[in-house]
Amino acid sequence: MDWQAVWVTLKLAALTTLVLAVLGLPLAWWLANTRWRGRALVEAVVALPLVLPPTVLGFYLLMAASPRFAPGHAVEQLTGATLAFSFEGILLASVICNVPFAVRPFAAALEAVDRHLIEASWCLGVSKLRTFWRVALPLAWPGVLTGLVLTFMHTVGEFGVVLMVGGNIPGVTRTLALAIYDDVQALDYSSANRTALVLLALATISLAVTYTIAQRRPART
Amino acid sequence: MSELVAEFERRFVRGPTIEGRVRQPSDCFSLTVLFGPSGGGKSTVLRALAGLEQPQSGTIRFGDETWFDATTGAFVSPQRRGIGLLFQDYALFPHLSVEQNVAYGLTRLPQNQRAPRVAEMFERFELQELTARRINEISGGQQQRVALARVLACRPRLLLLDEPLTALDQPLREHLRGELRELLRSLAIPVVMVTHDRTEAIALADRVVVLVDGRVRQAGDVQDVFARPADEVVARYVGIESIEQGIIVETRDGLAAVDIGRVRLWGLAAGLGPRVHVCIRAEDVVLERGVTSGSSARNHLPAKVLSVVPEGALVRVLVDCGFRLTALVTRLSAEELRLAPGETITAVIKAPAVHLLPRG
Q1: d(Cα B273, Cα B211) in Å, to the nearest integer?
Q2: Closest CA to A125 of B76, B60, B113
Q3: For A3-216, which CATH class?
Q4: Is the ipTM of this complex over 0.90?
Q5: How many CB atoms lie within 10 A of CB B355?
Q6: Could you tell me if A80 lies within 8 Å of chain B, comparing CB atoms?
Q7: Which CATH class is domain B242-358?
Q8: Which of A117, A121, A124 is the best substitution to test chain B (most B C-beta atoms within 10 A)?
Q9: Is B94 within 8 Å of A221 when comparing Cβ atoms?
Q10: Domain residue limits, chain B
């Protein structure tokens, strides 16, 4: 087992999930409530990583991260570092890749919360933000949990975009998915098998637990 | 006098336009019923008063506050209107206990005042045994009480009720109708209520606004609207009904003797207090020439014809029999009886057609 890769993978997955919880929940709440016509466009952009080959995304991110172009240049000016082939780079890439895996379950769960409950809360004098915390989020919790677990597990398994943006630097950007690829390239099938089995078991268990929890607490009465 | 005055239009894109018109005192009890068929726009008007819908034109004023003004763009959020809205489905929070539901809106109250306020509501609505229960563990009638307690705990300045009794079954509904009026009166705040139930409207309302297809077809005192519908559309929904204030003077053999002024009527006793509304539907009134004998009907009232108005195959006849009574008879009968203003006739009403409703 490549423990360095385990550490990089867990760090990447945990941070990606955290970032998407912070950014994805407000976006999902907005999507669940807005009647704005441009909503469809926003939803399309959110879903884009589902159909786009990870290499395409990775390629553009790599280009954008390059100091030769404006975004990468700005980052270099500000932090003195480049995003390409760095942990921050694959974190950004993995956040973008995982937007649909977080935002779509969040939005579906928040949309399923009875509108009357939200409105009842407003009419009782409770602000929109507090209503979100006290009513919407607790009732949408199973769906939100599903989104968080999907994001985490999908980050653990992400391959293409991490390879494109991060290269394959041990201890920095080499994740377990990349380690398996390296093992196979080196004909070390038993090592590849061990890592693959761990990932398979982890994915199965986490999804089983999530769906059990989601089933036990229905979001509506 | 401080008033709630609302006149507005809510236009839906590719949908109907709903007109709202409500006017009543804002500092004492009075109850306006928004009445009409389902889909007529009643709930939209209520939601606009609550601030959950924003109209495209008009104004909503409460006392000296402007809650909405289309010309200046003024709009006060539902949080800041100090209203209480009771949803038809009660909208109780399923993830909270009964106690947490009732305490939910008390966030602006200092901590040490919350528990006494909740206790006060629990006592008033007899919820003490339900404190820790979940919403799905209590009955429909209990849910209604919790919902009312939750709304009233916040001490609203205006109470909005959306079909408050519809979700309950019939016996409970009739029982609660009387209690509801008493409760609302004790709050001393204006109430706007949506209902499609005519009995509920008559029993509870001071004023009625009839909404059909998004338009206000008639607005006025409950007696006026139900006894003198402005047009045929209103008449179709409200029915034509004579409503008078009566006093039950005697109960015998399951019948109640009711005095309306100096006229005595017999209706079915329903275990009510002495003060009642007496409702008689126009189609239940039979008109006869001369003094009749040998009829099973309990009520024979000598009357003078005031007006005769043809309405399609029917004729609406207004007579004075000590109070104003509307009868709906066929055109043929009207011709045979040679009904004309000034003629003397007898109005006949069976006891079961004399509906008695409690009056506060």
Answers
A1: 32
A2: B76
A3: mainly alpha
A4: no
A5: 19
A6: no
A7: mainly beta
A8: A124
A9: yes
A10: 3-241, 242-358
